[in-house]
Amino acid sequence: MSVNSERICCTGCDFETWDLRRPIRVVYRMKGGKEVELWRSKGWCYECNNYEDIEDIDPERFRIELVEDERERRKFCSRADKLSKVFLADIRNRAERRKLHDSIERLDQEIQDRSDLLAIVTKRKSGPRCLSCWSDKTAPVTFDSSDNLSHNFLHGCGGMLKLIVVDFLDDDSPRFNFALTTYVLNEEGELLERLKTR
């Protein structure tokens, strides 16, 4: 898979790196063997002393998304219930009822996965781990869309990191080709398996 790159540099010193958006899939294998997929994020790893891929574990965001999924499921169930009470319900609105049924099934799976993820992150002792060295000495880094600066993170020199978007049409900008990497982790974020897919 060929991916675009973005340059990250510090406003206070000469630190510079490339953000190579490698295709990464993070899967948590729970104690019972069930596997749940999660996202990855970007952040600072104090062990690597670099901008790296890190686990994206945010219990508050998981709670909000879980509440939103449950609300949407109730809305779909209510609509499906109304349609089933319509005269000749087996014949009328069949396409809409099928679509609602599929949406409810999808939401049931999302609600279960989010509940599992929330259980994992609330029980964890370690923070988000770096997906390069597996240290939990990390900090999230996000860039403000108005100025592309990392207002939530200060580099060791006291400067902020700045995201410089590289025009992917520019022939001089580097493009990299990576295979999909799947990291299978335990509930503490420790690496169990690393799988590459071409």
What is the count of β-strands?
Answer: 13
Question: What does the radius of gyration come to?
Answer: 21 Å
Domains (count)? 2
> Which structural category fits the helices and strands?
alpha+beta
Estimated share of beta-strand residues: 25-35%
Spans with pLDDT under 50 lasting ≥5 residues? none
Number of helices: 2
N-to-C terminal Cα separation, in Å?
8 Å
The neighbouring-strand order within the major sheet is 3-2-10-9
Mean pLDDT: 88
The best one-word shape is elongated
Order of helices and strands: EEEEEEEHHEEEEEE
Q: Give the fraction of residues assigned to helices.
A: 25-40%
Largest sheet: 4 strands, antiparallel
Q: How would you sum up this structure, described in words?
A:
There is one protein chain. 18% of the residues are buried. The mean pLDDT is 88. The chain contains two helices and 13 strands; from the N terminus they run E-E-E-E-E-E-E-H-H-E-E-E-E-E-E. The strands form four sheets. The protein has a four-stranded antiparallel β-sheet, with no helix packed on it. It has a four-stranded mixed β-sheet with strand order 5-4-12-13. The chain has a three-stranded antiparallel β-sheet with strand order 7-6-8, with no helix packed on it. 28% of the residues lie in helices and 33% in strands. Helix 1 (59-84) runs antiparallel to helix 2. The chain has 198 residues and is α+β, with helices and mostly antiparallel strands. The longest helix is centred in the middle third of the chain and has 30 residues, at 94-123. The protein folds into two domains: 2-57 and 124-197, no CATH class; 62-121. A hairpin with a 4-residue loop joins strand 6 (40-45) and strand 7 (50-55). The protein is elongated, with a radius of gyration of 21 Å. The chain has helices spanning 59-84, 94-123; strands at 2-3, 5-10, 16-20, 24-29, 35-38, 40-45, 50-55, 138-140, 149-154, 160-165, 176-177, 180-185, 191-197.
